[in-house]
C-alpha cells in the first residue's frame, strides 16, 4: 500500500455531529499503542503486536501520512481511518484506494465508525473526484462486513488469503452533484 498521492494534506479538521477527523499528533501515540496491541481489534487482522515492542518502535507521531485520519471524540483519539492506494492486492483492487478502519473496543456499538467513515469518504470524494474505493475484510468479521455495506460497498469477489476467507467490496465513484 502507498499513500494517496497528490491530495491537499492535511485537510482542515473535519467535524461531524460527534467527532473530529484530523491528522495525527504526538498526543495520539498512547491510543495508537492501545489500538495496535488490542487482541479484540486484531481478531481478524492477523493478531495484535506486543505492547513493549510498540512502545520502543512506534514513531513519535504514528500514522502521519496523507489518507490517515485520527478520529477524535471529546478530545481523545478513539480510532483511525486509513485511505491508501493499493499496490499489492487482488487484480480488481490494484491501483484503487482502499479503506480501512480500526476503533478502540470501548468505542464500538455507538455508530462512531459509520459517522467517521462517511465523513472520510465525503472528503475523499471532493479530494479525488470520480475515484472508486475498495475494501477488503474477513468474511468472519461480521461487524466490518455490516459497516462496509452501510457505507455503500458491494461485493466484487470473495477469496481466500492470509489463512482466512476474505471479502472484497467496491464503492463506485459518486456522481458529481449537478
Ligand atoms: C469494524 C468496526 C470499526 C465496527 O465498529 P462499530 O462500532 O460496530 O460500527 P458502527 O459505527 O457501524 O456502529 C455499530 C452500531 O452502533 C449502533 N449505534 C448506537 N448509537 C448510534 C448512533 N447514535 N448512531 C448510529 N448508530 C448507533 C448502531 O445500532 C450500529 O449498529 P447497526 O448498524 O446494526 O444499527 C469495529 O468493530 C472495529 O474497529 N473492529 C476492529 C478492526 C477491524 O476489524 N477493522 C476492519 C478491517 S477493514
Give the tags:
globular, Aminopeptidase, 178 residues, alpha+beta, binds coenzyme A
**Rough shape?**
globular
CATH third-level topology of the domain at 14-131: Aminopeptidase
Instruction: Provide the low-confidence segments as ranges.
Output: none
Our estimate of the beta-strand percent is 25-35%
Question: Structural class of the secondary elements?
Answer: alpha+beta
What is the subunit organization of this protein? Answer: single chain
Distance between the termini: 34 Å
The count of DSSP E runs of length 2 or more, i.e. the number of strands, is 8
Summed over residues and divided by their number, the pLDDT gives a mean of: 94
Using the coordinates above, name the CATH class of the domain at 14-131. Answer: Alpha Beta
**Estimated helix fraction:** 10-25%
Q: What Rg is obtained from the alpha carbons, in whole angstroms? A: 16 Å
Pfam families: Acetyltransf_3 (PF13302)
InterPro entries: Acyl_CoA_acyltransferase (IPR016181), GNAT_dom (IPR000182), N-acetyltransferase (IPR051531)
GO molecular function, one term: acyltransferase activity, transferring groups other than amino-acyl groups
Keywords: Transferase
Describe the structure.
- Helices cover 23% and strands 29% of the residues.
- By secondary structure, it is of the alpha+beta class.
- It has a domain at 14-131: 3-Layer(aba) Sandwich (Aminopeptidase).
- Strands 1-2-3-4-5-6-8-7 form an 8-stranded mixed beta sheet, with helices on both faces.
- The longest helix is centred in the last third of the chain and has 16 residues, at 112-127.
- The relative contact order is 0.17.
- Coenzyme A is lined by residues 41, 44-45, 100-103, 108-114, 137, 141, 143-144, 146-147, 150.
Amino acid at each position: 500500500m502507498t499513500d494517496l498521492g497528490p491530495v491537499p494534506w492535511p485537510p482542515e479538521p473535519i467535524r461531524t455531529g460527534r467527532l473530529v477527523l484530523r491528522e495525527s499528533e504526538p498526543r495520539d501515540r498512547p491510543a495508537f499503542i492501545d489500538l495496535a496491541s488490542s487482541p479484540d481489534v486484531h481478531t481478524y487482522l492477523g493478531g495484535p503486536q506486543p505492547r513493549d515492542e510498540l512502545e520502543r518502535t512506534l514513531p513519535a507521531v504514528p500514522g502521519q501520512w496523507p489518507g490517515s485520519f485520527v478520529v477524535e471524540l471529546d478530545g481523545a483519539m478513539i480510532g483511525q481511518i486509513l485511505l491508501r492506494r493499493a499496490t499489492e492486492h487482488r487484480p480488481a483492487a490494484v491501483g484503487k484506494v482502499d479503506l480501512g478502519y480500526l476503533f478502540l473496543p470501548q468505542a464500538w456499538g455507538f455508530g462512531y465508525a459509520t459517522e467517521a467513515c462517511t465523513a472520510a469518504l465525503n472528503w475523499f470524494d471532493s479530494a479525488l473526484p470520480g475515484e472508486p474505493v475498495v475494501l477488503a475484510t474477513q468474511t468472519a468479521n461480521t461487524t466490518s462486513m455490516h459497516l462496509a455495506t452501510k457505507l455503500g460497498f458491494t461485493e466484487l469477489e470473495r477469496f481466500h488469503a492470509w489463512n482466512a476467507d476474505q471479502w472484497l467490496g467496491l464503492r463506485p465513484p459518486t456522481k458529481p452533484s449537478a
